[in-house]
Write a structure and sequence with these properties.
The complex is a heterodimer of chains A (about 290) and B (about 350). Chain A is an all-alpha fold. Helices cover about 70% and strands about 0% of the residues of chain A. Chain A has a two-stranded antiparallel ribbon with strand order 1-2. In chain A, helix 5 crosses helix 7, helix 7 runs antiparallel to helix 10 and helix 8 runs antiparallel to helix 9. The longest helix of chain A has about 35 residues. In chain B, the strands form 4 sheets. Chain B has a 6-stranded mixed sheet, sandwiched between helices. In chain B, strands 12, 14, 15, 16, 17 and 18 form a 6-stranded antiparallel sheet that branches. Chain B has a 4-stranded antiparallel sheet with strand order 2-1-4-5, with helices on one face. Chain B is elongated and about 75 Å long. The chains are: A mainly alpha (about 290), B alpha+beta (about 350).
Amino acid sequence: MTPRVVFPNRILPYLLVAPQLAITLVFFYWPASQALYQSMLREDPFGLSSKFVWFANFRKVLSDPNYLNSVQVTVIFSVATAAVAMGTALLLAVMADKVVRSRGLYRTLMIWPYAVAPAIAGMLWLFLFNPSIGSLAYGLRMLGINWDPLLDGSQAMTLVVAAASWKQISYNFLFFVAGLQAIPKSLIEAAAIDGAGENKRFWTIVFPLLAPTTFFLLVVNTVYAFFDTFGIIHAVTGGGPGKATETLVYKVYNDGFVNLILGDSAAQSVILMIIVIALTAIQFRYVEKKVHYG
Amino acid sequence: MATVDLKDVRKVYAGGVEAVKGVSIAIPDKSLCVLVGPSGCGKSTLLRMIAGLETISAGSCAIDGKVVNAVGPTERDIAMVFQNYALYPHMKVYDNMAYGLRNRGTPKDEVDKRVRSTAKTLELEHLLERRPRELSGGQRQRVAMGRAIVRNPKVFLFDEPLSNLDAKLRGQMRVEIKNLQRNLGVTSVYVTHDQLEAMTLADVLVVMNAGLVEQLGAPLDIYEKPASTFVASFIGAPPMNLLPLRSGQLEGAVTLPAVPTNAATLGFRPEDCEVRTEANGVASDGALRLMAKVEGVEPVGAESFLYCQVPGGRIVVRVPGRTDVTPGDQLPVFARREKLHFFGSDGKRV
């Protein structure tokens, strides 16, 4: 255990945490409480007056089939994005670990996509896979695939998952590479001498020792898929076709800022907040127990 | 159970650096071969080549008569104890020891039997359910040994296994390793930079320097007849006193026995010289006598070391028990003819 630091001054510790507290207050607690308050208001159609309705907005939202569809879309989208982004990144990191020559160059190239803004990443994928002008869409059709994400919901989903994970791969890659480097080489050698083949070594030694990294990335990727993919979905599909790619965050935006149903939108964002808090708590409580730190 | 034969083994790294420059060693069955030398002499590289962790650039390595150059470490049927022990941190001691057996498809009850009996030999039974981070350095070392023994391999490889332990524990483990190795009768290769470990453990001692074997033989033979000034100064603590000869003469010598014609360096061990003036019955005509000025005294208890200045350089003299010599004293140093070593200008023994 690290020794506890004792400050002789009574005010100094508060001063030191004040900037962090101020930021959290202004950018989290204040808007969150506003959302909570707004989620219990209902406005008249012209936005002139509002009425306090307690939990009526929540009841309405939770019984709305569109909302339940959005929950399903979000689950599929998040699980797929996290799985693809982490799986691909791990594969690339393991490969990169074996590269001996020009290792640095290879890694730098791998990290670039992270510097691309979400909306731009979305546009990139949109252009590549646009059914009428996209070069890769042309290739897909040449292969006999009836490619049209503007009409086909699951193709649209595939496209946003691909775009969202593509952007996250480099971030995950960076952490996996660092995680792999932290594993002492002698452990791998000991396992080899102990008769474990390359595959076995990976699954019995490397992967368990990467668990802290994997766990951390799981939290980060889930939060990313939930919140930070708005730009990509907005640019690529706009939640469509129909509501095939309308995630919870996208629906909050759509209902609040496009359809101007502020009460509903606020109720949804409160639910979203609860979901994320719950998810993080569950991940830390249960997954961490199976994680080995050193 | 197995012999290890190295024939003109070389290692050239990608950058062109030659770490091992042609080493041939034949290690007999059931014997313990110690590779000793300063850091960077290629001893660890050589061990890793026997293990299959490094490719062999040229020459051949045969285990049990079969050339294994192209065989991976997985199939060589060897076990290795690493300097940092390399225990799997996420596995319990039991699983650490069972890992190698399970990988080779040993039946479950057989694994259990062997792990438990090995644990018993090494007094690890009460630690089987612990993880490596909950163990002390000495316990980790034993687990690493257990992991090697439990597999019953053809060859044991030790890569400086005791260098992370404190001096007392190191002494204990040294004795234990020697006993284990003798009882199990497994051919072993042991790498160390500690000459004391090398002397006490080895059946075959290999002194290496700059990628080459300087001398190979039984430890006491090497101690008594070092083949070069390098071996002379590496084996034995404190090292052998080496003084330059100028055309067969030693500067400051009172008497000097007949010197071989091409000798350039005279050597004698600190424990082979005495402080006295008269020969006292010893044939003094063939002995070395010179005057030394004491610069420092190191009493160790059972013996004391006198660090002295002589015209030709510095020497160390070992005297038994306590001494009342103080720095600044002038002492007569005496060494018998048969205890003197001579080396040529190329450093080789003459």
